[in-house]
Design brief:
single chain; mainly alpha; 15 helices; about 0% strand
Length: about 230
């Protein structure tokens, strides 16, 4: 399907370039990416304050790849049982997160409302009243089960998804195309990442108008690594 999406352009160079950008973006915007890689980034943001736009706290490349593989293990979207398996994988990932010493230290036992407010604060977002209530209700009677459920509710909230959308989109370009952290060689700083995030934000998240995806798949670094299409 995706190959045809590009080859249908024939020899039309501008069509090919546009379709390559659309195809690339489609993978990031897909349910599969958002609920595997995206879930990793949102969970780490809520649980540990690891925001994708912060070079000092963002989830590093190797952990991102490892955790994404864990959540996506055995999942083939469109195949029977895929949704159930993905749900089970995400639930297990959340459970593992809540049971870590780091999480317990950051979020000691507390009433539901206190715990939920701390999760949203860790993510750096202000929830809607409905999102806060949903997370508190998910917490229920508390305990490990309640803490996991509330974490997942916050991770899947619209406020967290919106806050992480553009930062994770830019980060995905580095991790997917360049296979490295934004601060790794040849950059050695976060200026490139911040440039593209600022530009994407200035265009309201429009990856076409901002030329972000186009620039990554046309970059010399990408083509040296993977070849010119």
């Amino acid at each position: 399907f995706w190959t045809t999406n590009i080859t249908s352009c024939g020899a039309n160079a501008s069509c090919i370039a546009a379709k390559r950008v659309d195809t690339s973006a489609a993978f990031f915007l897909s349910i599969e990416f958002q609920e595997t890689s995206g879930n990793v980034l949102r969970t780490q943001r809520v649980a540990f304050g690891r925001q994708s736009n912060d070079q000092f706290t963002r989830v590093p490349y190797l952990q991102f790849m490892r955790d994404t593989r864990q959540i996506g293990q055995g999942v083939i979207i469109g195949q029977p049982g895929a949704d159930a398996l993905l749900e089970a994988n995400k639930a297990f990932y959340a459970e593992q997160t809540v049971l870590t010493a780091e999480f317990t230290s950051r979020f000691p036992p507390a009433p539901g409302a206190v715990y939920v407010d701390a999760l949203f604060a860790s993510a750096g977002v202000t929830p809607t009243a409905a999102e806060r209530t949903a997370a508190i209700n998910a917490f229920g009677a508390g305990g490990t089960t309640g803490r996991i459920a509330a974490l997942r509710s916050v991770v899947d909230s619209g406020s967290v998804r919106t806050a992480e959308a553009n930062p994770s989109f830019v980060l995905a370009e580095y991790y997917g195309y360049l296979r490295r952290n934004p601060t790794d060689a040849p950059d050695f700083n976060d200026a490139g990442y911040q440039f593209w995030l600022t530009k994407l934000n200035s265009f309201g998240g429009d990856f076409r108008s901002s030329d972000m995806v186009k620039s990554f798949i046309s970059s010399g670094e990408y083509r040296v690594r993977f070849g010119t299409p």
